[in-house]
Amino acid sequence: MSVTTARITAVDTYDIRFPTSRELDGSDAMNPDPDYSAAYVVLRTSAGGHEGHGFSFTIGRGNDVQVAAIDALRPHILGRPVSDLCDDPGSLYRDLIGDSQLRWLGPEKGVMHMAIGAVVNAVWDLAAKREGKPLWQLLADAEPEWLVSQVDFRYIADALTPGEALELLRTGKQGAPERAAELLRRGYPAYTTSPGWLGYSDEKLTRLAKQAVADGFTQIKLKVGADLEDDIRRCRAAREAVGPDIRMAIDANQRWNVGEAIEWTNALAEFDPYWIEEPTSPDDILGHATVRRGVSPVKVATGEHVQNRIVFKQLLQAEAIDILQLDSARVAGVNENLAILLLAAKFGVPVCPHAGGVGLCELVQHLSMFDYVALTGTTENRVIEFVDHLHQHFLDPVVISAGHYRAPIEPGFSAAMHQAAIDTFTYPDGAFWVADRAEGDQG
C-alpha cells in the first residue's frame, strides 16, 4: 500500500496517571492534591506510516471519563485517508465539532471539546511528522490562505473576519526567516512556576526561587488564594529571594469572588506582582473586567480554563484581560488555538500560555513559536510557563536554556510518550499502579 493511500487503522486510548499529589507538585488553592494525568490517544496508520499522538490533560479522577469521550470520536476517524487528514486537519475538526448528538454535550466546551482537541492535535502531530518538520515550523512555513482555511470564524466574525486574519498572517510573514533563525539561536522566553506551589514550605519556595534566578529566568509565579496571611508571608519571602528586578506573578486558580479578588490582590500589591492569574471564574467576563479596573497597575491574566474561542473573544472585547493564557489541550486543538492567537494579535494582547501538567509545555511551545515567527513577530512581554516535572516521559522533551525554551527540531508536535511510561503509568493496570495497590494491601 502506498503512503498516499494510507489510512487510520486504529485509535488507541490510554488512561495515564502520575502520583504527583504525594509530593504536592501542582498544588494550589483550588487543586490541593492533583495527580497529573493524560487521556492519551495514538492514531495508528497503515503501510507502516507515522503515528499521530495527542492527549487531554486532567488531574486524576475523571481521566477515565475523558478517555471515554475520546473513544466516542473513534467512528469519525477510523478509515480516513491519512493524506486527506494531513492536507486539511480542519476537515476533521469541522466533522467532530459538527456531530450534532455529541455537540449537545457542549456545545464546544467541556470534556467532549477537550476530547476533540486531543484528536485534532494528534492529526497535527501526524501532519508535521509527514512533512518532516516540528509543528511550529510547519505552521510558520504554511501559506496564510491555508492557515485561514483552518480557522472556524463562526461566532467570532464580529471581532475578527477572515480578511483581517489573512492580513495579519501576510504581515506576519515579513521577516519570518530571520526570526526563525533567531528562535533557533536563542529560544523563546520562559517563566517558571516550580518554586510557587502552595504546598511547598517557605524554605523550599526560597531555595527554588533563588535557583530560578540563577538558571536565567526573569519571572517566577506563586500560587495564592488559600490564606491571606500565608500569602503575604510567602510573597515577602519570594520577593526577598529574587530581588526587585525579577517579575513575580501570582495565581489564584479561580478561588475568589470579584470583590474578594480585588481586595486580596491589592493586599499583595506591596510585593509588586506582575499579574494576577485566574482571579475568579474563567466564565465571568464582566467580573474579570471589574477586577482589572480594581487592581491596576497589576495586570490580569486568564485562559487556561477558558473553554473556547468565543469566550476569549468576549474577554478581549470587554477589555477584561491584559494577558491571554491559551492552553494547548483545553480547546479543540491547533485549529481553535490559531483562532485565539489571531484574536489576540488583532486586539494587541500578549499571549503567555499555560503549561506544566503532563506534556503541556511540550505542546504549547510550538504555538508561541509560530506566533513569534509568523504572526506577531515579537516576544516582548511574552513568556511561556515552565514547570519542571514529567518531561522525562516524552520522546522529545522540552529543553530550557538560560531561561528560554529551545526550539524543537524533531518532526511533530512533541506529543509522543515513551512506551515504557505508558506501560508503567496506565491506570489501573500499569506496573506502577499494580505495585502501589500491592504495597497498600500489605500495609
Given the C-alpha coordinates, what overall shape results? globular
The CATH topology of the largest domain is what?
TIM Barrel
Radius of gyration over all CA atoms, rounded: 21 Å
Tell me, rounded to a whole number, the average pLDDT: 95
Question: What would CATH call the architecture of the largest domain?
Answer: Alpha-Beta Barrel
Q: How many helix segments? A: 19
Q: In total, how many beta strands?
A: 12
How many separate domains make up the residues?
Answer: 2
Structural class by secondary-structure content = alpha/beta
Helix content: 40-55%
Biggest pleated-sheet summary = 9 strands, mixed
The percentage of residues in β strands lies in 5-15%
The CATH class of the largest domain turns out to be: Alpha Beta
- Regions with pLDDT < 50 over 5+ consecutive residues? none
Give the end-to-end Cα distance, rounded to a whole number of Å: 55 Å
CATH superfamily of the largest domain: Enolase-like C-terminal domain
Keywords: Lyase, Magnesium, Metal-binding
Cofactor: Mg(2+)
Catalytic activity: L-fuconate = 2-dehydro-3-deoxy-L-fuconate + H2O
GO molecular function: L-fuconate dehydratase activity; magnesium ion binding
